[in-house]
Amino acid sequence: MAEPLISLLLEQLTMVLSRKVQKEVNLVVGVKKQVNKLKSNLIDIQSVLEDAERKQVKDKAVRVWLNKLKDVCYDMDDVLDEWSTAILTWEMDEENTRSLKKMRCSFMRSPCFCLNQGVRRRDIALKIKAVTEKLDEIAKEKVMYGFELYEAADHELPRLTSTSHVDDSSVWGRDDEKKSVVSMLLAENSQEARNVDVISLVGLGGIGKTTLAQLAFKDAEVTAHFEKKIWVCVSEPFDEVRIAKLILNQLEVSTSNLDDLQSLLPKVSQSINGIRVLLVLDDVWTEDDRQWEQLKLSLTGCARGSKILVTTRNGAVAVTMGTDHLIDIGPLSDDVCRSIFNHVAFKKRSKDERERLTDIGNQIADKCKGLPLAAKVLGGLMQSKRTREEWEAVLSSELWRLDEVDQDQVEKKLFLPLLLSYYDLPSVVTGSRDMEVDGEHYFQVLAARSFFLDIKKYGREDTRFKMHDIVHDFAQYMEENECLTVDDNNLGEATIETSIERVRHLSMMLSRESSFPSSIHRSKGLRSLFIGNTSGSWLGDALPDVMKQFTCIRSLNLSESSIKEIPKEIGKLIHLRHLNLEGCRQLESLPEIMCDLCNLQSLDVSRCTFLNELPRAIVKLIKLRHLCIYDSCVAFIPKGIERLTCLRTLDWFLVCGGGENESKAANIRELRNLNHIGGSLVIRNLQGGIKDAEGANLKNKHLLCLELHFCVNHEDFILIEVLQPTSHLERLSINGYGGTILPNWMMALTRLQELQLRYCQNVEVLPPLGRLPNLESLVLFRVGVRRLDGGFVGIEEVENANINEGEIARVTAFPKLKTLQIWGLHEVEEWDGIERRVGEEDSTTTSILIMPQLCDLSIKECPLLRAIPDYVLAAPLQKLHVEGCPNLRERYMGEDWHKISHIPSIYFPRGQTPLETLCFVMTRSGPRRVLRLAQDFSHPTRLSRVSFNVKCFLCLTSLFWYPTPIGARRGEPSSGCEETSRQTNIQFVLEDAERKQVKDKAIRGWLDKLKDVCYDMDDVLDEWSTAILTWEMGVRCRDITLKIKAVSEKLDEISKEKGMYGFELYKVADHDLSRLTSTSLVDESSVCGQDDEKKIIISMLLDESSQEARDRDVISLVGLGGIGKTTLAQLAFNDAKVTAHFEKKMWVCVSEPFDGVRIAKVILEQLEVSTSNLDDLQSLLPKFSQFINGIKVLVVLDDVWTEDHRHWEQLKPSLAGCARGSRILVTTRKGAVAAMMGTDHQIDIETLSDDACWSIFNHVAFHKRSKDERERLTDIRNKIANKCKGLPLVAKVLGGLM
User: Fold this and answer.
1) Which range scores top for mean pLDDT: 69-83, 352-366, 728-742, 1083-1097?
2) Most buried residue, 304, 457, 550, 779, by CB count within 10 Å?
């Protein structure tokens, strides 16, 4: 929209001309005339701009005219901003001159200065003249298009009423569809062989699929017909575990100890077995049939007549779900759209208004084209229209003809009502001169028109919301030439399809570029630039040129980048308002020239951990409104900060306690006049200076969060008293306070929600914190109290009060407390209980309710504390974490377990294992300490307790960190450390490179070079290691050093080259190849050609002849991935004879890594044994042994990869007690795994015959196809099926593809 630009320009012209700096404003002769002409043309154009905005949708010539107008407006804004900046600079120079009046020559300006000012004035004047001429041409052209005057209406919006539930009375027009869906739900199944039918509702986003499903779900006949109804919003991604849990929760089955499909799906099958159910899966997106297949199998046991109702936008999804009945949801009738429109538009209007506007409203509703979302949005738009003229203006709008322009893009039909809402937005919000308040107003205007949804507030400073996907697409569509997002995948495409010269807002997420993309340099008028995901050094090299090229930038975001300095060229960005350097952890300094950016309004250097100092001249930035420094290493706030009276945010202040920075640092009293400061403020190093602290005047600030950090337990009670904040404070943290009494003002903070007391080690008595009415979170960390009593809870006075006979005093302490953390209270032995009165009432007592909402309690390092009061344990606790409290552990894990057993999540950790100790020391100790530990842990009696990976790490550690041997040159081991650094640098992206090399030959070449260097490196390191062992370092030292240097240089080159390929960071454990979790469920109708193998496996499972020496045999199925091992195991597992033969059957999908704890938990869950308090093998395996002792079991370990026998040996003994005839059935791709598992019978799974592959392919490819289609495609299908070469997975995938 050009309207906001023109309004802004007119405001700027008025502001600049009103400044009393005549000599500077006049510039040169004739400029005043040019400015008046400029203003006249702008007003002239503004009067017809609304009409032009609407006509440009169907008239390309008008669109071109508007684009030219926008370009000139942007140019004009730059010139006026430059002019305004010149005036501001002149004013600041005058002020500085007056401040130096003691110097004799301070009033004398140098000829050079005057000459520069004259040149600058003339330059601005010429730019104004050029812009005026362009605008004059544009103003003349407007006559060609027949624009009409358009007066903007008043846009004060009434407050909209919203609810969180669906109102059935507000739904119209889906009666026929509802009857159709209901009849399908009540009908018998379409196939006799199946108990469950799938019905899919398919249609455009916003067409009403979910609403229709809700209507059918709530129908009385449907409710009576089904024994159970379940609703699941699936969305994206398709999470089988979450879906299964939601189903079980609605079936009132506990899932607290179930976290994997193998445990969940049998529960689902069991819970719905033999009953008629309706399952609604709303908003399904996935086209991957493998994700749906396992869940679908768990639903096969329900009674005939059960139904699955699916809603989706994608017809392909409906096919994937195996749909029996597909219903395409079409548009509503015009009458129905009128009903929806009228319901929203005429809400709370009088009868007279309805009668006066109904005829126009019906005509407007007819333009919704049957889309309920459009009717709702348009109705919301008309709520703010009070006059008939406003309604007629909407009715006569030509924007409704947009569908004639892009008829091929169906989704864009939803943009029609959004366009009206978009153009109806107020271009300028008038009222407050505070831009933050205006910004909030803009947000509310957008939210009132439903551009934002699900708006939630987290505290006062964090607002989160969603944007409907259609609205998001619409916003991108409207601003495609001005807003551009570029990443590694679309760089070329985006720069070709977009008019780069017209881009004003650019977001770049590039990783592989070694230089700034040259195509972007044409965006000379860029206003905002965000550069993210820059881990390489190219950005630092490119910044000087970027700042030279894009001098019009207002907002520059370089957050989280790896830049080390800001180039001096930043001084050219005279228009810059916002500079975001958050998280630039390598940034070391800010240039002083940055302080000449007098228009800067926000500067964020938070989390810049190498930044030690702000520029001293930062106090020149008199327009600065937000200065964020938190979590940086800035040592002091520069003196003169009091001049920045526009500041709204100052999140950190360090009190300078002397030293070299004292002369440069601001005193805390400089906060006195910064009364606009709000949000959060952290004050550190508080000590002495009571008058200075009192002068800070925190009471008059608009703070919501305050952190006070005292210097070395400073004991001045008066100091904390004079730091009294506003009573509106919501969060308070006091750290390192050395006084014995907390401030009196604390109990006056009636809005306080969070309180933290840390390292207040002299505080012996706590105030009655239980009386803070809104306190939700309390942290007591290293506080010196010796007792937690009734005074802390806030009931002591009530206890001592005189209560008359028959009266009951009702008291609630900590009424809203949800989280309580008590850490490091080393002296506390007693936490007094008040059990006799908690919740009790009699004729002469007090009813006391304490912590009625407490759900999270954490107690750590309180070694003397003997008990937790019963009133705390009686609270609705969901989590209890106790650590470093031996008395509590002994008590509550023993005799008082019954008092905490009801809490869902309980954590009482044991002592550290040797491996945990080793890892702890490795991360905190030097190399020699690691080597000593390595030798210690390598002792035969200890080695079994150290994992293989740790041993490998120790070997590498001993190689690279080995103490320097005699004869070695100083500094040589550091070369090895540098190699480790480079290897680590490459290692993080190696996973991505390995995957990308399949499609990219250049990456393959890079990996080949890397392999060659790795081989060379291995040779050199092996030679080095050999020299150390044979003590020949003195002889071969120089030769090895040269080789290390050569390898280092090669590796350095390869490391630099990796930036070219756009690799993403990967942790070693990350794998983008998803592993599907198998379960024991199988659809036998889809299995072909494996009958013989199935019979062999079953016979081995039932055979009793080989059991003379042992109670159980191991049978391994070995074969290629996708050959059908898991399917065979599933068939055998579900065989009736096998089920009757074994007393217990357990299925575990092992996969990678081999997690013994998880495997044991999954087995115990299938044995219906709780594992909620068991987190280690030492606790799990005895349980396992106990519950299978003496019974015949079948354990299937599917998809085993590990060849490390130690993993298996930990589990194996726990199976020894089962009855004779028990079996372990293993599936694996590797024969070595089968050998490691101690296999008694190995079955090598071979490929299928061509006929079997053909059957599988047909079953999938021709699912629900007509007989004619089958016959027509028979010859082709046979040829395709023959390509499968006996692999069932290939046959299935190809069938799904077809």
Assistant:
1) 728-742
2) 550
